[in-house]
Amino acid sequence: MCQVEEEYHEQLERVDTPSASKKCVKCKEELAAVVIRAGDAYCRKCFRESFIHKFRAMLGKTRVIFPGEKVLLAVSGGPSSCSMLSQVQEGVSQNAHKKLRFFPGIVYIDEGGALGQCKEMRQKTTSELCDMFRSTGFPFYILPLEQVLDLPGSVLTPSPLSDQPGSAYKAAVDLFLQRGDSSSDGKAEEQECVSLPAVQESHTWLLQQLIGSAQTLTAKQDLLNTLRQHLLVHTARTRGYSKLMQGDSCTRLAVKLLTSISLGRGAQLAQDTGFSDCRYGDVTVVRPMREYSAKEIAYYNHMFKVPSVVIPNLDTKMPDKASIQRLTQSFVTKLQADFHSTVNTIYRTGEKLQTADRGSSAPEDAERCVLCVCGLDTAAEEASALQATLISELLSQSSVPVKPEPPATVGQCCSSERPCGGAEGTDDCCRSSRDHEATDLRSLLCYSCRRTVRDMSSVDRLPQYVLSEAQRRQNRSAMKEQISEFLLDDADEND
Amino acid sequence: MPVLCSSCSEKRAVLKRPKTGHSLCKACFFWAFEEEVHRTIVAAKLFRPGETVGIAASGGKDSTVLAHVMKLLNERHGYGLELMLISVDEGITGYRDDSLETVKRNQQQYELPLKIVSYEELYGWTMDAIVKQVGLKNNCTFCGVFRRQALDRGAIMLKVDKICTGHNADDVAETVLMNILRGDIARLRRCTAISTASEGDGVVPRCKPLKYAYEKEIVLYAYFKKLDYFSTECIYSPNAYRGYARTFLKDLESIRPSSIMDIIHSGENLSVREGVKMPVQGTCSRCGYISSQALCKSCVLLEGLNRGLPKLGIGKHHRLHEKILSQQPLTEQEERKLKSVDF
């Protein structure tokens, strides 16, 4: 009910209660072992076939992964990504029917430092995962999140794509087949004997300061996601991987869609939740698990013994209203229990959206957000929500310039832990010196990253690469302003 | 030591703005609120001088504040508009007749002409009778569709050029969320627009001057200005699907007050991929009202009510539209399916 696309079938449907003696709806021979949706009962074999088939079909119809490419699998240890790992493992193995033709690698990011886990806990988890990865035979990399502090600024600028236009997919496949399979075996990398990297205490402390400078859990989670994504892209880039596979399930993506809307990321929705995300240029993020619901994945993992590790997150064991992400997750899950097509509908809605205003031409450096590397959506047009917010802020403050010392009462609330009544970095708060830096950074951020940074107590805690990249862009735009009258037209800056 | 107003820095602050968190005194708050609505009207070019504008008044807080602010701004900034009140009587005993009394009081207070249109005279059905047939789950659909047409009819009777409704920021954000949950791509694109398109004869364009005003601020405004309004929930609404979106939005607001504006910002920046099927605007073959199908929704709903088939109109029945138009009787199977109502 209440769905626009709901079709009423010819006859009144009677709800069939699934019973143990029902036959599989696909092969109609075996007894059903699992019920995915009401009325869809499958036997083990058919379920496994359809599961594997969905994965292959996803990769096949989108034609994004070329044969012979190196693909990095981002495994978090959770059920979806471990399921994805097992699918790839199956697909690449020699005896597979129509085996997958790319070369996978695995990466795991250890976020224990940001969560405040003790060293023993982190060692335990990473060694468990290490054993799991070693048994697959693929090269794997285990990186602590602390490495994000040492990233170069080039992470934030999309590198140009090496020549692989989409229309050449068929040609590439033919070429690969002609060269024959014998050459491909030689290319498979030797599994590196990776020892678990040692983490410096000071780095962990810095990371915790960084995460701690975000005052709301929403901002913390957002920041953590951004940093993790940067590290993943950097790893892929430096090790020569051109694709990054992430294991977001349908349920997770539906939650992500609603969360993005609530955070103000409507303009970047297609990139956040679509199948392929090209914002980084040379590294494309793909999400092959996006048609599987969390329930299907759970059933598969249980029935076919796919190992996975439980790893806590920032919002584990938190109450519903702790952060926007947590609230949305519980909202969608509860709604799904009453209305079974909720997740699917949200997912289909997301599929029909695209990135606003940007066609195939990528925006230049200066028009991308420094944190999330998406196009900026902060052109405050007439009669837009952004302009209305700016006007509100303007009208709620005096037009008199800032007095040198703030009134005593407001000063008190600044020294306390919580933010001063939600007034965001404005002049009734004793941050006037840092205010200048904050406003400068804000002009380089998209709407939702601005919101996140507003929740941070100090911008200095951001990693060095972000701050230096911001500085570089500001210098360039100042330069451009100086010489603007001499520039003939919008020359392409991406040379 | 008391907190000073952050705008004038002289008087004591008596309230904290839900939208930005600043503490303001009464006068500065009134001024900020009114000035924001004024800037919205000017930036979106909602009105032209000399137009007649109908204010959709239900007696609730949004329409009362809207009437008050429109009258005030019209005088203060010289919009040159002629204002009128239009009210719709859905025929809900215990709810609508009370709120209509409030509208009549408003009319006397603001000295604006008032026109009341009722479902009874337009369609021959009151909401009470409809709920008896339809039940408590899908009744909001009937009320909403009928009200839209009723407002337009009332506007045409009064010969107004535009209608303005009291939809606030919370309503718009709620609609964005609800359209995502329902998968309604067509509406998703249009729902954040501040005014509807103004083509066609039978269509009066409508706009939402309060689009960027938070519901809480509207209540604060009405409270401090001591405006008279009717504040009870519709008795038939508790089971509406919109309730879920509303609870979610309220929770979001409690976590982060700016999320309402964030959702509106997201909604404004959504764009639909090419190749997605969109409905085309046409007219209803029976009543001539604007419609994307052969029959407009209210004709379909009315047909269902009149024939005793309440589910005709809930869900998609394109194939049946031709049959209804040509007055053919429906087959027994179709009738059976459409009659079943669960309470």
UniProtKB/TrEMBL annotation, chain B:
GO terms for biological process: protein urmylation; tRNA wobble position uridine thiolation. Its main location: cytoplasm. GO terms for molecular function: ATP binding; nucleotidyltransferase activity; tRNA binding. ATP binds at residues 56-58, 62, 88, 166, 171. Keywords: ATP-binding, Cytoplasm, Nucleotide-binding, RNA-binding, Transferase, tRNA processing, tRNA-binding. InterPro entries: CTU1-like_ATP-bd (IPR056369), CTU1_C (IPR032442), Ncs6/Tuc1/Ctu1 (IPR000541), Rossmann-like_a/b/a_fold (IPR014729), TilS/TtcA_N (IPR011063), tRNA_thiolation_TtcA_Ctu1 (IPR035107), UPF0021_CS (IPR020554). SUPFAM superfamilies: Adenine nucleotide alpha hydrolases-like. GO terms for cellular component: cytosolic tRNA wobble base thiouridylase complex; mitochondrion. It is found in: Cytoplasm. Residues 282-312 form the Cytoplasmic tRNA 2-thiolation protein 1 C-terminal domain. Its EC number is 2.7.7.-. Residues 53-246 form the tRNA(Ile)-lysidine/2-thiocytidine synthase N-terminal domain. Gene3D superfamilies: HUPs. Pathway: tRNA modification; 5-methoxycarbonylmethyl-2-thiouridine-tRNA biosynthesis. Pfam families: ATP_bind_3, zn-ribbon_14. Plays a central role in 2-thiolation of mcm(5)S(2)U at tRNA wobble positions of tRNA(Lys), tRNA(Glu) and tRNA(Gln). Directly binds tRNAs and probably acts by catalyzing adenylation of tRNAs, an intermediate required for 2-thiolation. It is unclear whether it acts as a sulfurtransferase that transfers sulfur from thiocarboxylated URM1 onto the uridine of tRNAs at wobble position. Belongs to the TtcA family. CTU1/NCS6/ATPBD3 subfamily. This is Cytoplasmic tRNA 2-thiolation protein 1. It comes from Poecilia reticulata. The gene is CTU1.
